[in-house]
Amino acid sequence: MRLSRYFLPVLKETPSEAQIVSHRLMLRAGLIKQASAGIYSWLPFGYKVLRRIEQIVHEEQIRAGHLPMLMPTIQSADLWRESGRYDAYGAEMLRITDRHDRDMLFTPTAEELITDIFRAHVTSYKDLPLTMYQIQWKFRDEIRPRFGVMRGREFYMKDGYNFDLTKEDALHAYNRHLVSYLRTYERMGLQAIPMRADSGPIGGDDTHEFLVLAETGESEVFYDSEITDLRFGDREIDYDDRAQCQGVLEEFTSRYARTDETHDPELFAKIPAERQRVARGIEVGQIFYFGTKYSEPMGAMVDDGKGNRVPVHMGSHGIGVSRLVGAIIEASHDDKGIVWPEGVTPFHVGIVNLKQGDAACDGACEGLYKAFVAKGLEPLYDDREERAGAKFATMDLIGLPWRITVGPRGLGAGVVELTCRRTGASEELSPEAAVARVAGIYAPHM
Ligand code: P5A
């Protein structure tokens, strides 16, 4: 992409309405624009990040054996009356009446609708286990939408639902989700810690929230500092292997880590004092096992193979896809702007031409551009007639992990400059070597 043809409405002023750094940077770097309270348009640059995050979520869900599907955003109230949640959900649910005076709503989550699909088509244990998921817009009429996309009213969520014959099978689905979430967040350059939480309006007793530690997080958290040393890494996992998934659950949840809703001061006090941590976190996901809470009232029953019709055991599992954009920035920025992790960056590399209109510089930039595209990478070429300082400031603000600077002096010596956004370290190398270096860095992410 050439910056001269892109839509990147960068703001010079710091927007006064934004209280936290990720919100400020998302506005300043032209990722989003508020449409109304808690509702945002995703401009091309922000939309690209959203898509990258969505893609990682899809890949990891499919790897775990879960089936992608898509349900509508507008649902009939009748289904929610069957589960009892139409009244229970309260003011957070956006209620709509259609021209025939039918009660409709904008989905805040989709346990009822997926259970309705299940009961219409599945009658036997032979069709289990089954896990389906979607990535779809949700609406919750939050009393205090704030911090930009972090607590929106309209937001993008991955929501998955498992159907199993027994509690034991459903707990395996729970563990599978826990493992796949650990992989998902690490690919985005995040450490998200599973913490024992409260299930709220979704229901059930077994639930973990995934929290990214950040001072601006909305949740107060209490944990054993040893937990921050854990990494899932690139270990191979067989998602059908119950013992293996259970082992990961025990490894990542055996130490004390709780949100304030479930915090137990007595248990916490048993951790050696130097390891006790009280901090804040951003909730980027939550997994639930709630048994037959929906299947029983809604009649989602299967033949268990022994002549009985039994309600299926279910759980649901969410990832805050749009919130993650803010969470990643909260976890990865400096005073100049965003620093995208390689796994989610909207463009892989920035090309800065220090002397636009100079035949040698223009030619070298075009050559680099084509070489990156040929390697399957997306460069963003700053080809504007701007001062070098302005170009660098824009690149730093928008946070591409790698920048190549092309100027007449370097080209005279046959080199360009490759700069790492995170460390600020630069090195001079030939254009070919620079392309090979950057391609090598991204190879594990392709
Ligand atoms: C699990 C999937 C559920 O709704 N039902 C289907 C379950 N869980 S949840 O914890 O309530 O939401 C899942 C994730 O969505 C994000 N989230 C939000 N993101 C932005 N703005 C909001 N107002 C908002 N509310 C929830 C969180 O990341 C949460 O973990």
Automatic annotation (TrEMBL):
Q: Name the PROSITE patterns for this protein.
A: AA_TRNA_LIGASE_II
EC no. given is: 6.1.1.15
Q: Which reaction does it catalyse?
A: tRNA(Pro) + L-proline + ATP = L-prolyl-tRNA(Pro) + AMP + diphosphate
Q: Which ranges carry the Aminoacyl-transfer RNA synthetases class-II family profile domain?
A: 33-341
The biological process GO terms on file are: prolyl-tRNA aminoacylation
Query: Which Gene3D superfamilies does the annotation name?
Result: Anticodon-binding domain (3.40.50.800), Bira Bifunctional Protein, Domain 2 (3.30.930.10)
A GO MF term? ATP binding
Q: What does this protein do?
A: Catalyzes the attachment of proline to tRNA(Pro) in a two-step reaction: proline is first activated by ATP to form Pro-AMP and then transferred to the acceptor end of tRNA(Pro).
Its assembly, as annotated, is: Homodimer.
The name this protein carries in UniProt is: Proline--tRNA ligase
Organism field: Roseicyclus persicicus
